[in-house]
Amino acid sequence: MSELRNRIAGRVRLAGDEGFEDARRPWNLAVEQPVHAVVEAATADDVAEVVRYARDTGLAVAPQASGHGASGDVEGVILLRTGRLDDVRVDPGARTARVGAGVRWARLLEAVSPYGLTGVAGSSGAVTVAGYTLGGGLGWFSRRYGFAARSVRAFEVVDADGERGRVTADSDPGLFWALRGGGGEFALVTAIELDLHPAPALYGGRVLWPADKAPEVLAAFREITATAPEELTVWFDLLRFPGAPPTVAVDATYLGDAAEARELLRPLDRIGGAISDGRAELPVAALPSITAEPTDPGAGLSRAELLTGLDDVAGVLLDGPLDPLLSVQLRHLGGALARPSGTAAGHLAEPYLLYMFGLALDPALAAAVDARQGEIAGRLAASATGRKPYTFLRPGERAELAFAADDLARLRELKRRHDPRDLFRANYPVSR
Fold it and tell me: Which residues does the UniProt record annotate as the domain FAD-binding PCMH-type (predicted)?
């Protein structure tokens, strides 16, 4: 790798080098990444040099900026860190932004918030815009605007020959379609240009109750989501914070007037006994504070299921303790997500997403978490379709679960066309 060291401005680390062990770790510390080397790119030209080196030496390249979504399927590859590609340019008049591959959502939201604009952000500000969007991007405003991938105007890429280029719907319709939600293994993305959306008024926050209120909160969640407009997004959460009694919460955002939001969420006010109520008019930059997800890596195990309805949910989720899970969440989907997207992410006919999470600090705890998640999923099997959004896949699951059969076949053909040597490795490859 000494040749590559001389060709790039960034840094190359091999096993035994200072910092290699930290550099190869993903966000989820329960996932091992037995990579050949870690390269920290300083520029898009560095990315091109890495691709040419990998092509000439028979290696593969797995891009990661923040390390989210890692599956561990990276044995012997060059792990490409793109976190230093962190340029942000906002054009408020055109309602567009250009963001480098290393830009995290918190930074973009801070940049667009003063203009009353937003992107289709998820719950975490620590996730990169590019990685999230390449996997479709299922977030707070997806009921109104669909997958985040729908908002992409252009990709700046390095292709499998190590050439830099720009991909749009006009320049290469097939590749553009695949990169919008197909997982990103068709070219290495160094920056994306995306449409921003108006958010002159935003209301949202979390309401928290003792766990014994869970039946009432779930009933209110069902009532609200039965008629919710697309501007309203509501999530139901069962929570078990370490060192604290179990609780139940509702997280919500509304793209509109606060008075309208309070009226739509009125069933929550009938419950009473709330521990806290953080609902308020918010700047877009405050979106990550609603769920306050961890901003540092940790070891965990998650599982997601798309549900056709909630008829069996109360009897399953509220029957018995949450332990050893830390959280069980129901996200209301529907709206624009249920309509064709024109992207590889397709659409989601299912109106709800179940997401379960627990720590995996040691093998025994990981096994207990996995068993509990499996038990819940098994009891909800009649409502679960088996499909998973790409960014909710977990290690051991395959990309086939995220795509319709025709779209999967098209993605595989595009992979063969644009990367016949399988030079690029996504977290969950469609090609393997």
Answer: 31-199
In angstroms, the CA 428 to CA 432 distance is 8
Query: Hey, CA dihedral for 69, 130, 340, 142, is it positive or negative?
Result: positive
Secondary structure (H, E, C), 150-207: HHEEEEEEECCCCCEEEECCCCCHHHHHHHCCCCCCCCEEEEEEEECEECCCCEEEEE
Fold held by 1-81: 3.30.43
Residues facing 331 on adjacent strands: 235, 353
Residue 432 has pLDDT above 80, yes or no: no
User: In whole numbers, what is the pLDDT of the chain averaged over residues?
Assistant: 96
**Separation in Å, CA 166 to CA 91, 129, 187:** 19, 18, 11
Amino acid found at 42: A
**Comma-separated ranges of CATH 3.40.462.20 domains in the chain:** 203-392
* pLDDT score of 43 more than 80: yes
Smallest CA-to-CA distance from 41 within 56, 23, 68, 21 is with 23
Distance CA 302, CA 82 (A): 25
> Tokens 């914070």, residue?
241
Residue 90: pLDDT band (50, 70, 90) is very high
Q: Show Cβ contacts of residue 142 under 8 Å, excluding neighbours closer than 6 positions.
A: 120, 148, 233, 333, 335, 336, 337
Handedness of CA 119, 122, 124, 128 (dihedral sign): negative
250 CB-contact burial (10 Å; exposed 0-12 / middle 13-18 / buried 19+): buried
pLDDT on residue 242:
86
Average pLDDT of 383-407?
A: 96
93 Cβ contact list (under 8 Å, min separation 6)? none
Name which CATH class applies to 203-392.
Answer: alpha beta
pLDDT, average across residues 21-35? 95
Residues in CB range of 393: below 8 A, 6 or more apart: 69, 71, 304, 399, 401, 402, 427, 428
Q: What is the CATH number of domain 88-198?
A: 3.30.465.10
Lowest mean pLDDT among 3-7, 84-88, 215-219, 325-329: 3-7
Where, residue-wise, is CATH 3.30.43.10 in the chain? 1-81
Please say whether the beta carbons of 317 and 236 come within 8 A: no
Question: According to the model, what pLDDT value does residue 321 have?
Answer: 87
3-state secondary structure of 342: coil
383, pLDDT greater than 80: yes
